[in-house]
């Protein structure tokens, strides 16, 4: 989930509400160069431009290059962060996604999650819940003694239902906190390149196979159209050389080689026809 150099540069400019023209005026760098630094075809950026942009945005060069995730506090003292040795080792190990952990920690509802977790871990709510349960138990005992209702009596059932399992209740509250944060993080990254698409690639493939199998269709174009759709490429804008390389690369795809082994022979033979054109 780490941002590329292009994304970092564009985000910093957009955060300040600047156009490329305005940025060029204030940094004395050319508009075309600045645009190329943010473009998809980014190849190189001069040392001078890196230093000037880092100064202008008040960030480190390491941040612009993606070597650091710290934008505003490059020299933060670890002692001030009160991190344990185990936590520091974990963050350095690469076993977890540190960027995602940071997003989790800065989520607006994270302090609430930590507060509820602290209440559960320290047993702060136990006495309050036990006191509430004691009141419910006392009322239930009084009703049973005076009226001796059956266990199916609605009012008695309400009192029984009001009895709180403190452990289950606290864990439920924590789970609700986590669910809200997790959903927000997923929504924030739904358009990321490596996120799993909501549509089904197998269905797209089978649809392409059916199109390739029809008498009036061009199997090669149908197969290329499927590949381009998955990669969000415009087939019409690809050169013949690019199409040739795309077909060579596509031949290595496990999805195209064996999309669904359980289907019938007729479908498989049709799929093979689609692959043969590649």
From TrEMBL:
SUPFAM superfamilies given in the database record: lambda repressor-like DNA-binding domains
HTH cro/C1-type domain: residues covered: 9-64
GO molecular function, one term: DNA-binding transcription factor activity
Pfam families: HTH_19
Coiled-coil stretches: none
GO cellular component assignments: cytosol
Matches recorded under Gene3D superfamilies: lambda repressor-like DNA-binding domains (1.10.260.40)
Keyword DNA-binding part of the UniProt annotation: yes
Keywords of the record: DNA-binding
The keyword tRNA-binding is assigned to this record: no
Stored PANTHER family: HTH-TYPE TRANSCRIPTIONAL REGULATOR, METHYLPHOSPHONATE SYNTHASE
Listed name of the protein: Transcriptional regulator
